[in-house]
Sequence to fold (346 residues):
Amino acid sequence: MDRSFTLGLRGTRVRSFDSGCINPEDLSLSRAAVWVCDEATRQFLPSGADPAVVLSRGESAKNWDSVLKIIDAALSVPLGRDDLVIALGGGVVCDTAAFAASVYMRGCGLVLIPSTLLSMIDASLGGKTGIDHGSYKNIIGSFYPAGEILIYPFLLKSLPEAEYLSGLAEVLKHALLEESSLFADLSSLRKDVLERDVRVLNDLIPRSLAVKGRIVEADPTEEGIRAQLNLGHTFGHALESLLGLGVLPHGLAVAWGIARAMEAGVSLGATDPAYAAEVKDFFEAYGYNLGYRIPDLGTYLDILERDKKRKNGEVNFVLQRRRGDTFLTPLSEELLKKVLTPFSDV
Ligand SMILES: NC(=O)c1ccc[n+]([C@@H]2O[C@H](COP(=O)([O-])OP(=O)(O)OC[C@H]3O[C@@H](n4cnc5c(N)ncnc54)[C@H](O)[C@@H]3O)[C@@H](O)[C@H]2O)c1
Fold:
C-alpha cells in the first residue's frame, strides 16, 4: 500500500510503501538523478540508479570530501537545478547528500530515502543538513527541506538491533507529545513493532513522522514548541557524555532521560503520577532499561550545567503534565539531586 501525505514544511511530500524493494516507478524519475548511499545501503539501489556515490559507513563520512564527490557526480551527468540528488541511507547519508544538494547550483532537487528508523522519523524531516569539521558536529550546514521523503520499512529488516531500538525510542517519544491513538497502537502492536512487521511499520512510521512534522511546522525556526522534541534529551545527553560518546546508544539514553523527566515532573507536583508510571511501563514493556546508573553524580550535574540548550544562564528541562501537555522549566539542584540520587553510585 502506498501511504501518502504532505507536510507543510515547504510542502515536503511523504510517501510510505509496504513493498519489499525500491521500485523505480515510485520515483518521478523523468528528472536526471545522482544517487547517494553508503556501503550498507548500496544493496538496495534500484536498477538504473546511476551514477551512485557510495560513502563509507558512519559519522566520519560527513565531510567535505563526500560533498565534493556528490558534486563531481552531479557535474558528470550533468545535473541541472531541476534535477535530483537522491539520498538512500541513514542520517549520515541524508545530512551529507542534502547539504550537497543545497549548495549545488545554489540548490537542486532533493529526495530522501531514509534507511534507519532514526532517519525515517527524525533526521529526514525538518530541513537541517550538515557535515562535521574537526571535532565540531554539523558545524557546516544549511536549512534545505527535501521535496520528497520516501519511507520503505523493509529497509529496517537488515538494521542492527541496537540501531533499531535506538530509533524506536524516538518513535515512542513522539507518541507522548500528542494526545492521539499512536500511544495505544504502539502499546497493542508491540510484538509486531519489535519484529519489524513491514505492514504495521508502514502505518506507524508515517504517523510518528507526522508528529515531528506538525511540531516543526508550528515552529520552523526553533524559537518555541520545537523544544518539546527534546523530551528526555537533556537528562539523556548528560548520561551519554558522562559514559563517553557512543557507549550508550542515543535512543537508550533518551528513554532513560524520559523516565527521569517524569520523576522530576512528579517531584515538582506538575506531572500526574499515574501518567508518569504509565510512561515508564510503556518503555519498560519495550525492553528499555530505565535504571542505568550514574557513576559520578557531581560530574553528571556539571555536564547538565554546560548543556548547550542553556539559555539566559539556565538549563531548561522538557517535562510533561500528561500526554500532549509539555512544558519547559529550569530545575533546582536540590530537586535534581532528589531525582538522580537513587540512580547514582557516588
Ligand atoms: N538533520 C537532522 O535533523 C538530524 C536529526 C537527527 C540526527 N541527525 C544526524 O543523523 C546521523 C545519525 O543517523 P543514523 O542514526 O541514521 O546513523 P547512520 O546514518 O550512521 O547509520 C547507522 C549505521 O547503520 C547503517 N545502515 C543504515 N541503513 C541501514 C540498513 N537499512 N541496514 C543495515 N545497516 C544500515 C549505516 O551504514 C551505519 O553504519 C548523525 O550524523 C546525526 O547528526 C540529523
In short: Residues 38, 40-41, 57-59, 62, 89-93, 95, 115-116, 118-119, 122-123, 126, 128, 138, 155, 158-159, 163 surround nicotinamide-adenine-dinucleotide (CB under 6 Å). The two ends are 53 Å apart (CA to CA). The chain has a mean pLDDT of 93. The chain is about 40% helix and 20% strand.
